[in-house]
Design goal:
Number of strands: 17
Low-confidence stretches: none
Number of helices: 17
Oligomer: single chain
Number of domains: 2
Radius of gyration: 22 Å
Bound molecules: cobalamin, iron/sulfur cluster
CATH superfamily of the largest domain: Aldolase class I
Distance between the termini: 54 Å
Length: 450
Protein backbone atom coordinates (compact mmCIF):
# COMPACT_ATOMS: atom_id res chain seq x y z
CA UNK A 1 0.00 0.00 0.00
CA UNK A 2 1.35 3.42 -0.97
CA UNK A 3 0.29 7.03 -0.58
CA UNK A 4 -0.69 8.63 -3.88
CA UNK A 5 -1.12 12.38 -4.22
CA UNK A 6 -3.07 13.06 -7.42
CA UNK A 7 -2.94 16.48 -9.03
CA UNK A 8 -5.07 17.85 -11.84
CA UNK A 9 -3.40 20.87 -13.42
CA UNK A 10 -6.20 21.68 -15.84
CA UNK A 11 -7.07 25.36 -15.42
CA UNK A 12 -9.08 25.85 -18.57
CA UNK A 13 -12.52 27.34 -17.93
CA UNK A 14 -13.81 27.36 -21.49
CA UNK A 15 -16.52 26.45 -22.31
CA UNK A 16 -16.76 25.77 -18.57
CA UNK A 17 -14.75 24.12 -15.80
CA UNK A 18 -14.76 20.34 -16.29
CA UNK A 19 -14.54 17.87 -13.45
CA UNK A 20 -11.13 16.10 -13.65
CA UNK A 21 -12.59 12.79 -14.72
CA UNK A 22 -9.32 11.19 -15.87
CA UNK A 23 -7.59 11.80 -12.55
CA UNK A 24 -10.73 10.68 -10.69
CA UNK A 25 -10.99 7.43 -12.67
CA UNK A 26 -7.40 6.44 -12.02
CA UNK A 27 -7.59 7.48 -8.36
CA UNK A 28 -10.76 5.38 -7.86
CA UNK A 29 -8.99 2.38 -9.27
CA UNK A 30 -5.86 2.93 -7.14
CA UNK A 31 -8.03 3.28 -4.00
CA UNK A 32 -9.82 0.04 -4.85
CA UNK A 33 -6.44 -1.65 -5.09
CA UNK A 34 -5.61 -0.59 -1.56
CA UNK A 35 -3.64 2.63 -2.01
CA UNK A 36 -4.33 5.76 0.00
CA UNK A 37 -5.26 8.51 -2.42
CA UNK A 38 -5.69 12.26 -2.17
CA UNK A 39 -7.16 14.36 -5.00
CA UNK A 40 -5.76 17.85 -5.48
CA UNK A 41 -7.35 20.18 -8.00
CA UNK A 42 -5.02 23.08 -8.81
CA UNK A 43 -7.86 25.11 -10.33
CA UNK A 44 -10.16 24.66 -7.36
CA UNK A 45 -7.48 25.71 -4.89
CA UNK A 46 -6.94 29.00 -6.71
CA UNK A 47 -3.84 28.03 -8.74
CA UNK A 48 -1.71 28.72 -5.71
CA UNK A 49 1.76 27.13 -5.72
CA UNK A 50 2.33 27.59 -1.98
CA UNK A 51 -0.93 25.84 -1.18
CA UNK A 52 -0.04 23.04 -3.58
CA UNK A 53 3.39 22.45 -2.06
CA UNK A 54 2.07 22.63 1.53
CA UNK A 55 -0.71 20.17 0.72
CA UNK A 56 1.68 17.75 -0.96
CA UNK A 57 4.19 18.03 1.92
CA UNK A 58 1.53 17.40 4.56
CA UNK A 59 0.28 14.30 2.79
CA UNK A 60 3.83 12.84 2.61
CA UNK A 61 3.16 10.95 -0.63
CA UNK A 62 5.17 8.07 -2.02
CA UNK A 63 3.98 8.99 -5.50
CA UNK A 64 2.75 12.20 -7.03
CA UNK A 65 0.44 11.33 -9.92
CA UNK A 66 -0.15 14.24 -12.24
CA UNK A 67 -3.03 14.28 -14.70
CA UNK A 68 -2.61 16.46 -17.77
CA UNK A 69 -5.82 16.63 -19.76
CA UNK A 70 -5.33 19.40 -22.31
CA UNK A 71 -2.22 19.67 -24.37
CA UNK A 72 -3.75 22.61 -26.22
CA UNK A 73 -5.84 25.10 -24.30
CA UNK A 74 -7.86 25.93 -27.39
CA UNK A 75 -8.26 24.25 -30.78
CA UNK A 76 -9.03 27.52 -32.59
CA UNK A 77 -6.30 28.29 -35.14
CA UNK A 78 -6.61 31.97 -34.20
CA UNK A 79 -5.72 31.30 -30.56
CA UNK A 80 -2.25 32.46 -29.55
CA UNK A 81 -0.91 29.33 -27.94
CA UNK A 82 2.33 29.15 -26.02
CA UNK A 83 2.80 25.52 -25.06
CA UNK A 84 6.50 26.08 -24.49
CA UNK A 85 5.73 28.50 -21.68
CA UNK A 86 2.79 26.47 -20.36
CA UNK A 87 4.90 23.34 -19.91
CA UNK A 88 7.94 25.17 -18.60
CA UNK A 89 5.73 26.57 -15.82
CA UNK A 90 4.64 23.01 -15.12
CA UNK A 91 8.30 21.94 -15.02
CA UNK A 92 8.98 24.58 -12.36
CA UNK A 93 6.08 23.31 -10.25
CA UNK A 94 7.30 19.74 -10.57
CA UNK A 95 10.78 20.87 -9.50
CA UNK A 96 9.31 22.48 -6.38
CA UNK A 97 7.30 19.34 -5.61
CA UNK A 98 10.49 17.34 -5.93
CA UNK A 99 12.41 19.69 -3.60
CA UNK A 100 9.70 19.45 -0.96
CA UNK A 101 8.77 15.78 -1.07
CA UNK A 102 10.60 12.56 -1.77
CA UNK A 103 7.84 11.25 -4.01
CA UNK A 104 8.30 9.66 -7.41
CA UNK A 105 6.53 11.77 -10.02
CA UNK A 106 4.30 10.07 -12.60
CA UNK A 107 2.44 11.76 -15.45
CA UNK A 108 -0.70 10.62 -17.25
CA UNK A 109 -3.74 11.93 -19.09
CA UNK A 110 -4.80 12.64 -22.67
CA UNK A 111 -2.04 15.21 -23.27
CA UNK A 112 0.57 12.68 -22.17
CA UNK A 113 -0.90 9.97 -24.36
CA UNK A 114 -0.62 12.27 -27.36
CA UNK A 115 2.94 13.48 -26.68
CA UNK A 116 4.66 11.36 -24.01
CA UNK A 117 8.32 11.85 -25.00
CA UNK A 118 8.42 15.61 -25.27
CA UNK A 119 6.29 16.19 -22.18
CA UNK A 120 8.36 13.85 -20.06
CA UNK A 121 11.55 15.57 -21.20
CA UNK A 122 10.26 19.07 -20.79
CA UNK A 123 8.63 18.61 -17.39
CA UNK A 124 11.35 16.53 -15.78
CA UNK A 125 8.93 14.02 -14.24
CA UNK A 126 10.11 10.46 -13.56
CA UNK A 127 7.59 8.40 -15.53
CA UNK A 128 4.79 8.84 -18.04
CA UNK A 129 1.87 6.48 -18.53
CA UNK A 130 0.39 6.38 -22.02
CA UNK A 131 -3.28 5.46 -22.34
CA UNK A 132 -5.76 4.24 -19.77
CA UNK A 133 -4.27 4.56 -16.31
CA UNK A 134 -6.45 2.27 -14.21
CA UNK A 135 -4.30 -0.85 -14.36
CA UNK A 136 -1.11 0.71 -15.73
CA UNK A 137 -0.46 3.03 -12.75
CA UNK A 138 -0.78 0.32 -10.13
CA UNK A 139 1.29 -2.00 -12.33
CA UNK A 140 4.05 0.60 -12.52
CA UNK A 141 4.00 1.17 -8.76
CA UNK A 142 4.13 -2.54 -8.12
CA UNK A 143 7.12 -2.93 -10.47
CA UNK A 144 8.92 -0.03 -8.83
CA UNK A 145 8.34 -1.52 -5.39
CA UNK A 146 9.80 -4.81 -6.52
CA UNK A 147 12.71 -2.97 -8.18
CA UNK A 148 11.81 -4.50 -11.52
CA UNK A 149 13.29 -2.70 -14.52
CA UNK A 150 10.79 -0.27 -16.09
CA UNK A 151 11.12 2.20 -18.93
CA UNK A 152 10.36 5.87 -18.26
CA UNK A 153 7.41 5.71 -20.62
CA UNK A 154 4.90 3.01 -19.89
CA UNK A 155 2.63 1.95 -22.72
CA UNK A 156 -0.34 0.21 -21.18
CA UNK A 157 -0.18 -3.46 -22.16
CA UNK A 158 -3.81 -3.90 -21.11
CA UNK A 159 -5.07 -1.32 -23.61
CA UNK A 160 -7.92 -1.35 -24.29
CA UNK A 161 -9.21 -2.37 -20.89
CA UNK A 162 -12.18 -4.71 -20.85
CA UNK A 163 -15.61 -3.28 -20.02
CA UNK A 164 -15.53 -4.78 -16.54
CA UNK A 165 -12.19 -3.07 -15.81
CA UNK A 166 -13.63 0.37 -16.51
CA UNK A 167 -14.93 1.38 -13.13
CA UNK A 168 -16.50 4.67 -12.13
CA UNK A 169 -14.59 7.80 -11.22
CA UNK A 170 -14.02 9.00 -7.69
CA UNK A 171 -16.46 11.83 -7.12
CA UNK A 172 -14.67 13.62 -4.30
CA UNK A 173 -17.25 15.58 -2.20
CA UNK A 174 -15.18 18.78 -1.99
CA UNK A 175 -14.43 18.81 -5.72
CA UNK A 176 -17.93 17.82 -6.71
CA UNK A 177 -19.41 20.70 -4.68
CA UNK A 178 -16.96 23.18 -6.17
CA UNK A 179 -17.73 22.13 -9.75
CA UNK A 180 -21.42 22.33 -8.96
CA UNK A 181 -20.99 25.98 -7.96
CA UNK A 182 -18.89 26.77 -11.03
CA UNK A 183 -20.68 25.02 -13.85
CA UNK A 184 -23.61 23.07 -12.41
CA UNK A 185 -22.66 20.34 -14.88
CA UNK A 186 -20.70 17.16 -14.46
CA UNK A 187 -19.15 14.62 -16.82
CA UNK A 188 -19.91 10.91 -16.70
CA UNK A 189 -18.58 8.25 -19.01
CA UNK A 190 -20.91 5.46 -20.14
CA UNK A 191 -18.49 3.82 -22.56
CA UNK A 192 -15.10 4.18 -24.24
CA UNK A 193 -14.01 3.83 -27.85
CA UNK A 194 -15.06 4.84 -31.35
CA UNK A 195 -15.12 2.58 -34.41
CA UNK A 196 -15.05 5.42 -36.97
CA UNK A 197 -11.92 6.70 -38.70
CA UNK A 198 -12.50 10.42 -39.13
CA UNK A 199 -9.33 11.85 -40.58
CA UNK A 200 -8.48 14.46 -37.97
CA UNK A 201 -9.59 12.65 -34.84
CA UNK A 202 -7.44 11.40 -31.97
CA UNK A 203 -10.31 9.87 -29.97
CA UNK A 204 -9.96 6.32 -31.33
CA UNK A 205 -6.22 6.42 -30.64
CA UNK A 206 -6.96 7.47 -27.05
CA UNK A 207 -9.88 5.13 -26.40
CA UNK A 208 -9.52 2.38 -29.00
CA UNK A 209 -11.70 1.48 -31.98
CA UNK A 210 -14.03 -0.85 -30.14
CA UNK A 211 -16.92 0.30 -27.95
CA UNK A 212 -16.54 -0.81 -24.37
CA UNK A 213 -19.68 -0.10 -22.40
CA UNK A 214 -19.50 0.36 -18.66
CA UNK A 215 -21.84 -1.58 -16.44
CA UNK A 216 -25.03 0.46 -16.73
CA UNK A 217 -26.05 -0.08 -13.09
CA UNK A 218 -22.74 1.50 -12.00
CA UNK A 219 -23.34 4.50 -14.23
CA UNK A 220 -26.91 4.90 -12.98
CA UNK A 221 -25.71 4.64 -9.43
CA UNK A 222 -23.23 7.49 -10.01
CA UNK A 223 -25.94 9.67 -11.52
CA UNK A 224 -28.30 8.87 -8.66
CA UNK A 225 -25.69 9.81 -6.05
CA UNK A 226 -24.66 13.03 -7.79
CA UNK A 227 -28.33 13.99 -8.11
CA UNK A 228 -29.34 13.09 -4.57
CA UNK A 229 -26.26 14.02 -2.55
CA UNK A 230 -25.09 17.11 -4.43
CA UNK A 231 -28.10 18.37 -6.36
CA UNK A 232 -26.65 17.96 -9.86
CA UNK A 233 -29.29 18.06 -12.57
CA UNK A 234 -27.01 18.60 -15.59
CA UNK A 235 -24.88 15.79 -16.94
CA UNK A 236 -22.59 15.48 -19.93
CA UNK A 237 -21.92 11.96 -21.14
CA UNK A 238 -18.30 12.20 -22.19
CA UNK A 239 -18.36 9.25 -24.62
CA UNK A 240 -16.54 9.95 -27.89
CA UNK A 241 -19.79 9.22 -29.66
CA UNK A 242 -22.93 8.50 -27.65
CA UNK A 243 -25.18 6.96 -30.33
CA UNK A 244 -23.16 3.91 -31.30
CA UNK A 245 -24.43 2.62 -34.67
CA UNK A 246 -25.42 -0.76 -33.21
CA UNK A 247 -27.78 1.08 -30.86
CA UNK A 248 -26.45 -0.46 -27.65
CA UNK A 249 -26.69 2.94 -25.96
CA UNK A 250 -30.47 2.57 -25.99
CA UNK A 251 -30.33 -0.06 -23.27
CA UNK A 252 -28.75 2.50 -20.99
CA UNK A 253 -31.21 5.20 -22.04
CA UNK A 254 -34.16 2.91 -21.32
CA UNK A 255 -32.74 2.12 -17.90
CA UNK A 256 -32.32 5.84 -17.28
CA UNK A 257 -35.99 6.43 -18.09
CA UNK A 258 -37.04 3.79 -15.55
CA UNK A 259 -35.06 5.62 -12.84
CA UNK A 260 -37.14 8.82 -13.11
CA UNK A 261 -34.21 10.88 -11.89
CA UNK A 262 -35.35 14.28 -13.15
CA UNK A 263 -32.07 15.10 -14.84
CA UNK A 264 -30.98 16.86 -18.02
CA UNK A 265 -28.19 15.57 -20.18
CA UNK A 266 -26.20 16.26 -23.31
CA UNK A 267 -23.69 14.22 -25.34
CA UNK A 268 -21.82 14.03 -28.63
CA UNK A 269 -23.95 12.47 -31.36
CA UNK A 270 -23.13 11.47 -34.90
CA UNK A 271 -25.74 12.17 -37.61
CA UNK A 272 -24.94 8.70 -38.96
CA UNK A 273 -28.11 6.56 -38.91
CA UNK A 274 -29.81 8.88 -36.45
CA UNK A 275 -33.57 8.37 -36.35
CA UNK A 276 -36.50 10.22 -34.84
CA UNK A 277 -37.49 7.39 -32.44
CA UNK A 278 -33.87 7.34 -31.14
CA UNK A 279 -34.02 11.04 -30.38
CA UNK A 280 -37.48 10.78 -28.80
CA UNK A 281 -36.23 7.98 -26.57
CA UNK A 282 -33.23 10.01 -25.44
CA UNK A 283 -35.44 13.04 -24.85
CA UNK A 284 -37.72 10.97 -22.64
CA UNK A 285 -34.71 10.12 -20.47
CA UNK A 286 -33.78 13.79 -19.98
CA UNK A 287 -31.64 14.68 -23.00
CA UNK A 288 -32.15 18.38 -23.58
CA UNK A 289 -29.29 19.19 -25.93
CA UNK A 290 -27.13 17.51 -28.55
CA UNK A 291 -23.61 18.35 -29.70
CA UNK A 292 -23.46 17.05 -33.25
CA UNK A 293 -20.09 16.01 -34.63
CA UNK A 294 -20.93 17.52 -38.00
CA UNK A 295 -17.37 18.74 -38.57
CA UNK A 296 -17.61 19.87 -42.21
CA UNK A 297 -20.20 21.77 -44.23
CA UNK A 298 -20.51 20.04 -47.59
CA UNK A 299 -20.68 16.47 -48.78
CA UNK A 300 -17.28 16.91 -50.48
CA UNK A 301 -15.49 18.07 -47.35
CA UNK A 302 -17.32 15.53 -45.18
CA UNK A 303 -15.93 12.85 -47.48
CA UNK A 304 -12.54 14.57 -47.21
CA UNK A 305 -12.70 14.00 -43.44
CA UNK A 306 -13.72 10.39 -44.01
CA UNK A 307 -17.09 10.94 -42.38
CA UNK A 308 -19.68 8.20 -42.77
CA UNK A 309 -22.49 10.64 -43.65
CA UNK A 310 -23.16 13.41 -46.13
CA UNK A 311 -24.80 16.83 -45.90
CA UNK A 312 -28.31 15.45 -46.42
CA UNK A 313 -27.81 13.39 -43.24
CA UNK A 314 -26.81 16.56 -41.39
CA UNK A 315 -29.98 18.36 -42.48
CA UNK A 316 -32.06 15.35 -41.48
CA UNK A 317 -30.37 15.05 -38.07
CA UNK A 318 -30.81 18.77 -37.43
CA UNK A 319 -34.51 18.54 -38.23
CA UNK A 320 -35.08 15.47 -36.08
CA UNK A 321 -33.34 17.04 -33.10
CA UNK A 322 -34.77 20.53 -33.34
CA UNK A 323 -38.30 19.33 -34.17
CA UNK A 324 -38.15 17.42 -30.90
CA UNK A 325 -37.61 20.79 -29.21
CA UNK A 326 -34.02 20.03 -28.27
CA UNK A 327 -31.06 22.38 -28.42
CA UNK A 328 -28.62 21.42 -31.16
CA UNK A 329 -25.06 22.59 -31.78
CA UNK A 330 -22.93 21.90 -34.85
CA UNK A 331 -19.17 22.25 -34.81
CA UNK A 332 -17.89 22.94 -38.32
CA UNK A 333 -14.30 23.23 -39.44
CA UNK A 334 -13.64 25.01 -42.72
CA UNK A 335 -10.39 24.62 -44.61
CA UNK A 336 -9.98 20.88 -44.11
CA UNK A 337 -8.98 18.33 -46.74
CA UNK A 338 -10.52 18.95 -50.18
CA UNK A 339 -11.82 22.41 -49.27
CA UNK A 340 -11.85 24.72 -52.30
CA UNK A 341 -13.47 28.11 -52.80
CA UNK A 342 -16.38 26.29 -54.37
CA UNK A 343 -16.96 23.99 -51.36
CA UNK A 344 -16.42 26.97 -49.05
CA UNK A 345 -19.22 28.85 -50.80
CA UNK A 346 -21.43 25.76 -50.68
CA UNK A 347 -20.61 25.18 -47.01
CA UNK A 348 -21.32 28.76 -45.94
CA UNK A 349 -24.67 28.54 -47.75
CA UNK A 350 -25.45 25.11 -46.27
CA UNK A 351 -24.97 26.44 -42.73
CA UNK A 352 -27.19 29.43 -43.50
CA UNK A 353 -29.93 26.91 -44.26
CA UNK A 354 -29.65 25.10 -40.90
CA UNK A 355 -32.46 26.24 -38.66
CA UNK A 356 -33.25 26.43 -34.91
CA UNK A 357 -29.72 25.39 -33.97
CA UNK A 358 -26.37 27.00 -33.28
CA UNK A 359 -23.31 26.55 -35.50
CA UNK A 360 -19.78 27.13 -34.24
CA UNK A 361 -17.39 27.72 -37.11
CA UNK A 362 -13.64 27.13 -37.04
CA UNK A 363 -10.97 27.27 -39.71
CA UNK A 364 -7.99 24.92 -39.83
CA UNK A 365 -7.59 21.58 -38.09
CA UNK A 366 -4.99 21.03 -35.36
CA UNK A 367 -2.66 18.27 -36.56
CA UNK A 368 -1.72 15.49 -34.15
CA UNK A 369 0.72 12.73 -34.95
CA UNK A 370 -1.79 10.13 -33.73
CA UNK A 371 -4.53 11.18 -36.17
CA UNK A 372 -4.72 9.96 -39.79
CA UNK A 373 -4.64 13.61 -40.92
CA UNK A 374 -0.93 13.66 -40.07
CA UNK A 375 -0.06 11.64 -43.19
CA UNK A 376 -2.29 13.74 -45.38
CA UNK A 377 -0.70 16.93 -44.03
CA UNK A 378 2.75 15.58 -44.89
CA UNK A 379 1.57 14.53 -48.35
CA UNK A 380 0.01 17.95 -48.97
CA UNK A 381 3.22 19.67 -47.86
CA UNK A 382 1.53 21.36 -44.89
CA UNK A 383 4.10 19.88 -42.45
CA UNK A 384 7.35 17.91 -42.56
CA UNK A 385 7.38 14.27 -41.43
CA UNK A 386 9.59 15.20 -38.45
CA UNK A 387 7.61 18.28 -37.37
CA UNK A 388 7.47 18.45 -33.55
CA UNK A 389 3.89 19.81 -33.42
CA UNK A 390 4.57 20.99 -29.88
CA UNK A 391 3.17 24.40 -30.71
CA UNK A 392 -0.10 23.91 -32.61
CA UNK A 393 0.07 23.57 -36.37
CA UNK A 394 -3.23 23.57 -38.24
CA UNK A 395 -4.04 21.89 -41.50
CA UNK A 396 -5.35 24.21 -44.19
CA UNK A 397 -6.30 22.90 -47.59
CA UNK A 398 -3.72 24.08 -50.13
CA UNK A 399 -6.63 25.26 -52.32
CA UNK A 400 -7.76 28.06 -50.00
CA UNK A 401 -6.08 30.99 -48.35
CA UNK A 402 -6.69 31.25 -44.61
CA UNK A 403 -7.28 35.03 -44.33
CA UNK A 404 -9.52 35.18 -47.37
CA UNK A 405 -11.58 32.26 -46.05
CA UNK A 406 -11.88 33.82 -42.57
CA UNK A 407 -13.06 37.12 -44.05
CA UNK A 408 -15.63 35.43 -46.26
CA UNK A 409 -17.16 33.37 -43.42
CA UNK A 410 -17.21 36.35 -41.05
CA UNK A 411 -18.83 38.56 -43.69
CA UNK A 412 -21.50 36.07 -44.74
CA UNK A 413 -22.40 34.94 -41.23
CA UNK A 414 -22.25 38.32 -39.54
CA UNK A 415 -26.00 38.99 -39.51
CA UNK A 416 -27.04 35.56 -38.33
CA UNK A 417 -27.25 35.09 -34.58
CA UNK A 418 -27.06 31.32 -34.75
CA UNK A 419 -23.85 31.25 -36.81
CA UNK A 420 -20.84 31.94 -34.61
CA UNK A 421 -17.56 32.96 -36.21
CA UNK A 422 -14.73 33.59 -35.45
CA UNK A 423 -14.50 31.18 -32.49
CA UNK A 424 -13.35 34.02 -30.22
CA UNK A 425 -16.84 35.50 -30.62
CA UNK A 426 -18.42 32.38 -29.09
CA UNK A 427 -15.99 32.58 -26.19
CA UNK A 428 -16.82 36.23 -25.63
CA UNK A 429 -20.58 35.64 -25.66
CA UNK A 430 -20.37 32.77 -23.20
CA UNK A 431 -18.00 34.72 -20.93
CA UNK A 432 -20.41 37.68 -20.88
CA UNK A 433 -23.37 35.44 -20.05
CA UNK A 434 -21.37 33.91 -17.21
CA UNK A 435 -20.28 37.22 -15.69
CA UNK A 436 -23.42 39.26 -16.31
CA UNK A 437 -26.14 36.67 -15.69
CA UNK A 438 -24.27 34.00 -13.76
CA UNK A 439 -25.14 31.62 -16.61
CA UNK A 440 -24.16 28.00 -15.99
CA UNK A 441 -24.28 24.66 -17.76
CA UNK A 442 -23.58 24.29 -21.45
CA UNK A 443 -24.47 27.96 -22.07
CA UNK A 444 -24.72 27.52 -25.86
CA UNK A 445 -28.11 25.84 -25.34
CA UNK A 446 -29.42 29.14 -23.99
CA UNK A 447 -28.57 30.78 -27.32
CA UNK A 448 -30.55 28.30 -29.41
CA UNK A 449 -33.81 29.61 -30.78
CA UNK A 450 -36.30 26.82 -30.35
C1 LIG B 1 -15.92 15.00 -23.27
C2 LIG B 1 -14.79 15.89 -23.71
C3 LIG B 1 -14.97 17.28 -23.61
C4 LIG B 1 -16.22 17.91 -22.99
C5 LIG B 1 -16.14 17.76 -21.46
C6 LIG B 1 -17.49 17.65 -20.82
C7 LIG B 1 -17.43 17.39 -19.34
N1 LIG B 1 -18.35 18.00 -18.63
O1 LIG B 1 -16.61 16.69 -18.82
C8 LIG B 1 -16.10 19.39 -23.51
C9 LIG B 1 -16.90 19.56 -24.78
C10 LIG B 1 -16.54 20.47 -22.52
C11 LIG B 1 -14.61 19.48 -23.83
C12 LIG B 1 -13.94 20.66 -23.94
C13 LIG B 1 -12.59 20.78 -24.24
N2 LIG B 1 -11.77 19.78 -24.64
CO1 LIG B 1 -12.30 17.92 -24.63
N3 LIG B 1 -12.62 16.08 -24.69
C14 LIG B 1 -13.60 15.33 -24.25
C15 LIG B 1 -13.30 13.83 -24.50
C16 LIG B 1 -14.20 13.33 -25.62
C17 LIG B 1 -13.46 12.95 -23.27
C18 LIG B 1 -12.76 13.45 -22.02
C19 LIG B 1 -13.08 12.59 -20.82
O2 LIG B 1 -13.70 13.05 -19.88
N4 LIG B 1 -12.69 11.30 -20.84
C20 LIG B 1 -12.90 10.35 -19.75
C21 LIG B 1 -11.65 10.20 -18.86
C22 LIG B 1 -11.87 9.10 -17.85
O3 LIG B 1 -10.57 9.84 -19.72
P1 LIG B 1 -9.14 10.59 -19.66
O4 LIG B 1 -9.29 11.95 -19.14
O5 LIG B 1 -8.45 10.44 -20.96
O6 LIG B 1 -8.34 9.74 -18.57
C23 LIG B 1 -7.80 8.47 -18.83
C24 LIG B 1 -6.33 8.51 -19.32
O7 LIG B 1 -6.01 9.72 -19.96
C25 LIG B 1 -5.52 8.23 -18.09
N5 LIG B 1 -5.17 9.31 -17.14
C26 LIG B 1 -5.77 10.48 -16.92
N6 LIG B 1 -5.15 11.14 -15.92
C27 LIG B 1 -4.14 10.37 -15.49
C28 LIG B 1 -3.19 10.57 -14.48
C29 LIG B 1 -2.23 9.57 -14.26
C30 LIG B 1 -1.20 9.78 -13.20
C31 LIG B 1 -2.24 8.38 -15.03
C32 LIG B 1 -1.22 7.33 -14.81
C33 LIG B 1 -3.18 8.20 -16.06
C34 LIG B 1 -4.13 9.18 -16.26
O8 LIG B 1 -6.35 7.31 -17.40
C35 LIG B 1 -7.72 7.77 -17.48
C36 LIG B 1 -8.66 6.60 -17.34
O9 LIG B 1 -8.39 5.61 -18.29
C37 LIG B 1 -11.79 13.88 -24.93
C38 LIG B 1 -11.41 12.95 -26.09
C39 LIG B 1 -11.36 11.51 -25.66
N7 LIG B 1 -12.09 10.68 -26.32
O10 LIG B 1 -10.64 11.17 -24.74
C40 LIG B 1 -11.58 15.34 -25.36
C41 LIG B 1 -10.24 16.00 -25.04
C42 LIG B 1 -9.85 15.62 -23.63
N8 LIG B 1 -10.53 17.43 -25.11
C43 LIG B 1 -9.54 18.14 -25.57
C44 LIG B 1 -9.54 19.56 -25.67
C45 LIG B 1 -8.33 20.19 -26.34
C46 LIG B 1 -10.62 20.33 -25.19
C47 LIG B 1 -10.76 21.86 -25.23
C48 LIG B 1 -9.51 22.68 -24.93
C49 LIG B 1 -11.34 22.23 -26.61
C50 LIG B 1 -11.46 23.71 -26.93
N9 LIG B 1 -12.24 24.44 -26.22
O11 LIG B 1 -10.83 24.18 -27.85
C51 LIG B 1 -11.87 22.08 -24.16
C52 LIG B 1 -11.27 22.26 -22.75
C53 LIG B 1 -12.31 22.19 -21.66
C54 LIG B 1 -11.74 22.35 -20.26
N10 LIG B 1 -12.39 23.15 -19.43
O12 LIG B 1 -10.71 21.80 -19.95
C55 LIG B 1 -8.37 17.26 -25.97
C56 LIG B 1 -7.20 17.29 -24.95
C57 LIG B 1 -5.85 16.96 -25.56
C58 LIG B 1 -5.40 18.04 -26.52
N11 LIG B 1 -5.54 17.81 -27.81
O13 LIG B 1 -4.98 19.08 -26.10
C59 LIG B 1 -9.07 15.84 -26.08
C60 LIG B 1 -8.20 14.65 -25.81
C61 LIG B 1 -9.63 15.74 -27.52
C62 LIG B 1 -8.61 15.97 -28.61
N12 LIG B 1 -8.81 16.96 -29.43
O14 LIG B 1 -7.64 15.30 -28.79
N13 LIG B 1 -14.06 18.24 -23.98
S1 LIG C 1 -14.91 12.52 -34.95
FE1 LIG C 1 -16.34 11.41 -33.61
S2 LIG C 1 -17.10 9.74 -34.89
FE2 LIG C 1 -15.23 10.49 -35.89
S3 LIG C 1 -13.56 9.20 -35.10
FE3 LIG C 1 -13.71 11.01 -33.78
S4 LIG C 1 -15.03 10.42 -32.07
FE4 LIG C 1 -15.32 8.93 -33.74
Amino acid sequence: MSKLFFISFNCCNHPYEVYPLGMAAVAASAAQQGHIVHLYDYLMYGQNDEHLIESAKNFEPDYICISIRNFDEDLDSGYHANNTEKFSVLATRIKKLRENTSAIIILGGAAISLTPNILLDRTGADYAVVGEGEKALCGLISSLQKSEPVGRILYSTDFPLSSSDIKGALYDPELVRWYYEQSDLIGIQTKRGCPFHCLYCTYPSLEGHRFRHRNKEDVLDEIRRLRKDYGYRNFFFTDSVFNDPAGDYKEFVEALIRQELDIQWCAYFTPYRLTQPDIELCKQSGMHAVELGTDASSSTTLAGLNKMFDWSDVIRANEIITNAGLACAHFIIFGGPDETYQTLEEGIENCLQLEKCIVFGYTGIRIYRDAPLFKRAVADGVIQENEALFEPVHYFSPHVEKEKMNEEIARRWSRKRHLVFPPGKGKMISQSLKTMFNAKGLIWDQLCQR
